[in-house]
Each structure stands twice: as C-alpha cells, then as structure tokens.
Amino acid sequence: AREMPEETHDIQSLSDAAEAIGGCRRCSLYEQATQPVFGEGPQDAEVMFIGEQPGDQEDLAGRPFVGPAGQVFDEVIEKVGIDRSRVYVTNAVKHFKFVPRGKRRIHQRPDSGEIQACKFWLNLEREFVKPKIVVALGARAAQSLIGKAVSISKMRGEPIELEDGAVLYITNHPSYLLRIPDVEGRARERAKFAADLELVRDHMA
Ligand code: URA
C-alpha cells in the first residue's frame, strides 16, 4: 500500500505546494489523471480566478485553462481589459475527472467529496497569494468557496465578502458558454459573462 505523503508539513510557499500536490492522495482522482494541474500566475496577483477542474488539454499540459474553455476565458478577459499575466488562475479540483469513451475522455463533474478534499490546495493558494478579489467561474468553484450550492443567476453581479476579507464574485464557467447551442443565446450569455468581468476589472486597483 502506498503511504499518504506528509504533504501538510514543509509547505511554506506556493512553490512547495505546487511540488507537494504531485503526491496528493486526498481523493482517488490522481489514479486516472495524467498529473495534477496547480494554479498559475504571480504570487502577488490581486485577482484569483477559480474554475472547476482541469479538462482534457489541461490534464495533458499540466496548466489551467489552456483548452477550449481557456480560449473563451482569454478572449473575454482581454476584451474587458484584464491582463492574464497579472492574475492567478486555478481550479477548485486539481485533477481531471473523466470517463473514457473510445479515444476520447469525457469530463465528469467532481462531486462534493472531491471538491472538499481538494479545498486543502485551494486554501493554500489563497493563503499564499492573498488575492483581494476571488472570482468563482461556475457553481462548483462557488460551492467550494462558500460551502453550499449556489445559483449563478441569483448571485452574479453582487460581490460577497469572504471570511479572510477577500471579495468574491460569482459568474458562469466559460465552458457553459461553449455548450449553448444557439448563436443568439451564446452571444447573450457571453455578454453577461463579460459584464461580470467588467465589475471585477473595475474593482481592481
Ligand atoms: N475548465 C476548468 O474549469 N478549468 C480548466 O482549467 C479548464 C477547463
């Protein structure tokens, strides 16, 4: 049997955490994933964006938001004037959860237990980066941060203060935009997503 690594000790920095997560056995998702995908961005970032979990491309690249959802994210933040190189980007769950289907790997939603288990890493990222603004991209990220199920439509646009003093904005996940079949609906939701991110931009120093 494999021993649980002593990951909680000796984590003094973000880079220690990024290394220690390689031995994470807090849930079973490590068994199937290629690698954990830790957050990325400057340690002094004012804003932390939190997605759900790495997708297929992120799992292979070892970097967050580099696949199709990442492309939407990049386009919209650029449009509203947020520089990706100045923000910290991570996920509520650090391993890709999927079921194989032929040659493809189909994304599965992480469950509450997996989100809870992985909160250990997200909390470390929040402690080391100390973002003033936290942005939950989608319901899973919001659930991880506030500990209960949330309605995006009810909670978007109204920042919430977190217990560490950071301000939380909740918006949709960019992959939600990709799943909307009709062009008009997609454009409408994309505009709402951009409006949410404009609030974040305006909140930035
Ligand atoms: N979706 C996410 O939530 N995170 C990623 O990193 C990629 C896709």
TrEMBL record:
- GO biological process terms held by the UniProt record: DNA repair
Q: Does the keyword Metal-binding apply?
A: yes
* The keyword Iron-sulfur appears for this protein: yes
GO terms (molecular function) for this protein are: 4 iron, 4 sulfur cluster binding; deaminated base DNA N-glycosylase activity; metal ion binding
Query: Which residues are the signal sequence here?
Result: none
Pinpoint the Uracil-DNA glycosylase-like domain residues. Answer: 38-198
Which keywords, in A-to-Z order, does the entry hold? 4Fe-4S, DNA damage, DNA repair, Hydrolase, Iron, Iron-sulfur, Metal-binding
Q: Which family does it belong to?
A: Belongs to the uracil-DNA glycosylase (UDG) superfamily. Type 4 (UDGa) family.
Name of the featured protein: Type-4 uracil-DNA glycosylase
- Of the parent protein, the shown chain spans 267 to 471 of 476
